[in-house]
Amino acid sequence: MLRQLLTLVRGQTADASQTFLDANAISLLRQQLREAAGGVQKTRKAVAVVMAYAEREKTSLAAIEEQISDLEARTCAALEKGENDIALEAATAIANLEAERDATRRTIATYSSEVVHLRQTLAQNEALLNELKRGQRIAEATSKTQGLRGDTPSWTQSDLADASETLKRLQERQQHNDATMAAMAELSAGTSADALSDRMAAAGFGAPKKTAATDVLDRLKKKGA
Known about the structure:
Elements: H1 2-23, H2 25-80, H3 84-151, H4 156-202, H5 213-224
Helix pairs in contact: 2-3
Protein backbone atom coordinates (compact mmCIF):
# COMPACT_ATOMS: atom_id res chain seq x y z
CA MET A 1 0.00 0.00 0.00
CA LEU A 2 2.78 2.40 0.92
CA ARG A 3 4.58 1.60 -2.30
CA GLN A 4 1.45 2.40 -4.31
CA LEU A 5 1.00 5.70 -2.48
CA LEU A 6 4.62 6.66 -3.20
CA THR A 7 4.11 5.75 -6.85
CA LEU A 8 0.94 7.88 -6.94
CA VAL A 9 2.76 10.84 -5.39
CA ARG A 10 5.56 10.55 -7.94
CA GLY A 11 2.98 10.37 -10.71
CA GLN A 12 1.14 13.46 -9.49
CA THR A 13 4.43 15.31 -9.14
CA ALA A 14 5.41 14.36 -12.67
CA ASP A 15 2.00 15.45 -14.00
CA ALA A 16 2.22 18.78 -12.15
CA SER A 17 5.74 19.36 -13.48
CA GLN A 18 4.65 18.58 -17.02
CA THR A 19 1.64 20.86 -16.71
CA PHE A 20 3.88 23.67 -15.45
CA LEU A 21 6.33 23.14 -18.31
CA ASP A 22 3.51 23.12 -20.88
CA ALA A 23 2.06 26.34 -19.46
CA ASN A 24 5.45 28.05 -19.64
CA ALA A 25 6.73 26.41 -22.82
CA ILE A 26 7.25 29.72 -24.68
CA SER A 27 9.28 31.24 -21.85
CA LEU A 28 11.26 28.02 -21.51
CA LEU A 29 11.98 27.98 -25.24
CA ARG A 30 13.18 31.59 -25.17
CA GLN A 31 15.61 30.86 -22.32
CA GLN A 32 16.86 27.68 -23.97
CA LEU A 33 17.53 29.55 -27.20
CA ARG A 34 19.34 32.31 -25.30
CA GLU A 35 21.56 29.71 -23.67
CA ALA A 36 22.07 27.93 -26.99
CA ALA A 37 23.02 31.24 -28.63
CA GLY A 38 25.54 31.77 -25.83
CA GLY A 39 27.01 28.34 -26.53
CA VAL A 40 27.27 29.10 -30.24
CA GLN A 41 29.03 32.35 -29.42
CA LYS A 42 31.51 30.46 -27.22
CA THR A 43 32.17 28.00 -30.06
CA ARG A 44 32.78 30.90 -32.44
CA LYS A 45 35.22 32.42 -29.96
CA ALA A 46 36.95 29.05 -29.54
CA VAL A 47 37.47 28.85 -33.31
CA ALA A 48 38.99 32.32 -33.31
CA VAL A 49 41.30 31.45 -30.39
CA VAL A 50 42.54 28.22 -32.01
CA MET A 51 43.09 30.04 -35.29
CA ALA A 52 45.14 32.66 -33.42
CA TYR A 53 47.22 29.91 -31.79
CA ALA A 54 47.80 28.34 -35.21
CA GLU A 55 48.88 31.65 -36.68
CA ARG A 56 51.30 32.19 -33.80
CA GLU A 57 52.84 28.75 -34.38
CA LYS A 58 53.13 29.45 -38.09
CA THR A 59 55.01 32.65 -37.33
CA SER A 60 57.30 30.71 -34.98
CA LEU A 61 57.83 28.03 -37.64
CA ALA A 62 58.87 30.63 -40.19
CA ALA A 63 61.39 32.08 -37.73
CA ILE A 64 62.82 28.61 -36.92
CA GLU A 65 63.17 27.72 -40.58
CA GLU A 66 64.95 31.01 -41.20
CA GLN A 67 67.36 30.28 -38.33
CA ILE A 68 68.04 26.82 -39.69
CA SER A 69 68.79 28.18 -43.14
CA ASP A 70 71.10 30.82 -41.69
CA LEU A 71 73.03 28.33 -39.51
CA GLU A 72 73.30 25.83 -42.34
CA ALA A 73 74.90 28.46 -44.55
CA ARG A 74 77.29 29.51 -41.79
CA THR A 75 78.12 25.88 -40.95
CA CYS A 76 79.03 25.20 -44.56
CA ALA A 77 81.28 28.28 -44.56
CA ALA A 78 82.96 27.07 -41.34
CA LEU A 79 83.56 23.62 -42.80
CA GLU A 80 85.11 25.16 -45.88
CA LYS A 81 87.57 26.98 -43.65
CA GLY A 82 88.27 23.88 -41.59
CA GLU A 83 86.57 25.23 -38.45
CA ASN A 84 85.20 21.85 -37.42
CA ASP A 85 84.59 22.69 -33.77
CA ILE A 86 82.31 25.64 -34.42
CA ALA A 87 80.77 23.75 -37.32
CA LEU A 88 79.87 20.88 -34.90
CA GLU A 89 78.42 23.37 -32.44
CA ALA A 90 76.32 24.88 -35.21
CA ALA A 91 75.23 21.43 -36.36
CA THR A 92 74.03 20.67 -32.82
CA ALA A 93 72.04 23.90 -32.79
CA ILE A 94 70.60 23.03 -36.20
CA ALA A 95 69.52 19.60 -34.91
CA ASN A 96 67.75 21.20 -31.96
CA LEU A 97 66.06 23.73 -34.25
CA GLU A 98 64.92 20.95 -36.58
CA ALA A 99 63.36 19.11 -33.63
CA GLU A 100 61.62 22.33 -32.63
CA ARG A 101 60.54 22.83 -36.23
CA ASP A 102 59.02 19.34 -36.41
CA ALA A 103 57.18 19.84 -33.12
CA THR A 104 55.87 23.17 -34.35
CA ARG A 105 54.63 21.60 -37.57
CA ARG A 106 52.76 18.91 -35.59
CA THR A 107 51.28 21.62 -33.37
CA ILE A 108 50.11 23.56 -36.41
CA ALA A 109 48.58 20.38 -37.87
CA THR A 110 46.74 19.76 -34.59
CA TYR A 111 45.43 23.30 -34.50
CA SER A 112 44.38 23.12 -38.15
CA SER A 113 42.50 19.87 -37.55
CA GLU A 114 40.78 21.37 -34.52
CA VAL A 115 39.82 24.46 -36.49
CA VAL A 116 38.19 22.29 -39.15
CA HIS A 117 36.28 20.35 -36.50
CA LEU A 118 35.19 23.48 -34.65
CA ARG A 119 34.12 25.17 -37.87
CA GLN A 120 31.94 22.19 -38.76
CA THR A 121 30.43 22.16 -35.28
CA LEU A 122 29.88 25.90 -35.43
CA ALA A 123 28.16 25.69 -38.83
CA GLN A 124 25.87 22.88 -37.63
CA ASN A 125 25.01 24.71 -34.41
CA GLU A 126 24.34 27.99 -36.19
CA ALA A 127 22.08 26.27 -38.72
CA LEU A 128 20.17 24.50 -35.94
CA LEU A 129 19.93 27.70 -33.90
CA ASN A 130 18.54 29.63 -36.89
CA GLU A 131 16.01 26.87 -37.52
CA LEU A 132 14.95 26.93 -33.88
CA LYS A 133 14.60 30.72 -33.95
CA ARG A 134 12.33 30.43 -36.97
CA GLY A 135 10.31 27.81 -35.13
CA GLN A 136 10.20 30.08 -32.09
CA ARG A 137 8.68 32.93 -34.11
CA ILE A 138 6.05 30.58 -35.50
CA ALA A 139 5.28 29.18 -32.04
CA GLU A 140 4.99 32.67 -30.53
CA ALA A 141 2.74 33.84 -33.37
CA THR A 142 0.54 30.77 -32.93
CA SER A 143 0.39 31.35 -29.17
CA LYS A 144 -0.63 34.98 -29.67
CA THR A 145 -3.38 34.15 -32.17
CA GLN A 146 -4.70 31.38 -29.95
CA GLY A 147 -4.67 33.82 -27.03
CA LEU A 148 -6.65 36.37 -29.02
CA ARG A 149 -9.05 33.66 -30.06
CA GLY A 150 -9.47 32.71 -26.43
CA ASP A 151 -10.18 36.34 -25.49
CA THR A 152 -13.30 36.33 -27.67
CA PRO A 153 -16.29 35.83 -25.31
CA SER A 154 -17.99 32.48 -25.76
CA TRP A 155 -21.38 34.20 -25.90
CA THR A 156 -20.44 36.34 -28.91
CA GLN A 157 -21.73 33.73 -31.36
CA SER A 158 -24.98 33.52 -29.42
CA ASP A 159 -25.38 37.31 -29.49
CA LEU A 160 -24.75 37.38 -33.22
CA ALA A 161 -27.36 34.66 -33.78
CA ASP A 162 -29.91 36.55 -31.63
CA ALA A 163 -29.20 39.79 -33.51
CA SER A 164 -29.67 37.98 -36.82
CA GLU A 165 -33.02 36.61 -35.67
CA THR A 166 -34.14 40.07 -34.47
CA LEU A 167 -33.18 41.62 -37.81
CA LYS A 168 -35.11 38.91 -39.65
CA ARG A 169 -38.26 39.58 -37.58
CA LEU A 170 -37.88 43.34 -38.11
CA GLN A 171 -37.58 42.92 -41.87
CA GLU A 172 -40.62 40.62 -41.95
CA ARG A 173 -42.67 43.15 -39.93
CA GLN A 174 -41.58 45.97 -42.22
CA GLN A 175 -42.55 43.92 -45.28
CA HIS A 176 -45.96 43.21 -43.69
CA ASN A 177 -46.45 46.92 -42.96
CA ASP A 178 -45.58 47.78 -46.54
CA ALA A 179 -48.12 45.22 -47.81
CA THR A 180 -50.79 46.57 -45.44
CA MET A 181 -50.22 50.13 -46.58
CA ALA A 182 -50.44 49.05 -50.22
CA ALA A 183 -53.73 47.22 -49.60
CA MET A 184 -55.18 50.21 -47.76
CA ALA A 185 -54.20 52.48 -50.62
CA GLU A 186 -55.86 50.12 -53.07
CA LEU A 187 -59.05 50.03 -50.96
CA SER A 188 -59.03 53.78 -50.62
CA ALA A 189 -58.72 54.14 -54.36
CA GLY A 190 -61.66 51.75 -54.92
CA THR A 191 -63.85 53.52 -52.38
CA SER A 192 -63.17 56.90 -53.91
CA ALA A 193 -64.05 55.58 -57.36
CA ASP A 194 -67.44 54.24 -56.13
CA ALA A 195 -68.29 57.51 -54.42
CA LEU A 196 -67.42 59.47 -57.53
CA SER A 197 -69.58 57.15 -59.67
CA ASP A 198 -72.54 57.65 -57.33
CA ARG A 199 -72.17 61.39 -57.42
CA MET A 200 -71.99 61.43 -61.19
CA ALA A 201 -75.09 59.18 -61.47
CA ALA A 202 -77.01 61.44 -59.10
CA ALA A 203 -76.05 64.40 -61.26
CA GLY A 204 -77.57 62.76 -64.31
CA PHE A 205 -74.40 61.59 -65.93
CA GLY A 206 -75.22 58.10 -67.14
CA ALA A 207 -77.69 55.60 -65.73
CA PRO A 208 -78.76 56.19 -62.14
CA LYS A 209 -77.24 53.76 -59.63
CA LYS A 210 -80.00 54.13 -56.97
CA THR A 211 -83.79 53.83 -57.32
CA ALA A 212 -85.51 57.21 -56.74
CA ALA A 213 -88.69 57.53 -54.59
CA THR A 214 -90.75 58.78 -57.58
CA ASP A 215 -89.78 55.66 -59.49
CA VAL A 216 -91.09 53.51 -56.63
CA LEU A 217 -94.48 55.40 -56.61
CA ASP A 218 -94.81 55.08 -60.38
CA ARG A 219 -94.17 51.35 -60.14
CA LEU A 220 -96.79 50.91 -57.37
CA LYS A 221 -99.44 52.96 -59.30
CA LYS A 222 -98.96 50.80 -62.36
CA LYS A 223 -99.28 47.69 -60.21
CA GLY A 224 -102.59 48.95 -58.63
CA ALA A 225 -104.09 49.88 -61.93
